[in-house]
């Protein structure tokens, strides 16, 4: 197997089975049937999510469910990445995904160590609400200012070369919303070959957490991130590149079928 798809989730019984099947069809086409598997991290679900996973995961050989008993996105993502035993890992949100990003990153995987799907990279395909757009802008502005990170997003879906990321992941200590920001910034400073690409994003349901709570959580975790990384320098020049949406969606006719689906919600 070449790829593990890591999905942290919480109480997704309504869309879980159908969305796993739909994303699996894309992975079979892009990566190859039998060459990938799921690692689903159940992040404290209290609905029918565990029972659904027990029923559907055997359809994809090698796939497994991991349980993190209390809701904590960072711990769930870490647990999923720690369980990866394939050369590559893909992180997605069960709610929606961007197939052109996956297909383009997979075709070009030999050229980079970390692919980041950035919602903020192209405002013409970003359909966030004003509330979420403000929170995303504020967090990334702080990251740009205090860590000199020159990318536009650290929290989007990713394709990771595990041989390059595993040593960096082992250094990370944060959880919750800043775990992936920590390993992206560490990788950025250690000279990983990072590629940022714009992804289409459509807000499909209201935020689960209140805005005030999200702001407070982000401020608290950002402060921890700053204290943790303030003495960590650069090992050399940074290697961050960007492409535009047209790079992902144009090309030979054989590749154009990858453009078909950018979001899914049952």
| Computed Rg | 18 Å
Portion of residues in helices? 25-40%
User: Average pLDDT, to the nearest integer?
Assistant: 89
Identify the overall geometry.
Answer: globular
What is the tally of beta strands? 10
Q: Any low-confidence stretches, pLDDT <50, length ≥5?
A: 252-260, 262-266
Order of helices and strands: EHEHEHEHEEHEHHEEHEH
- Strand order, largest beta sheet: 3-2-1-4-7-5-8-10
- Beta-strand content: 15-25%
**Can you count the helices?**
9
Number of domains: 2
Task: Please describe the biggest sheet, giving its number of strands, its sense, and whether it closes into a barrel.
Answer: 8 strands, mixed
Give the distance, in angstroms, between the N- and C-terminal Cα atoms.
29 Å
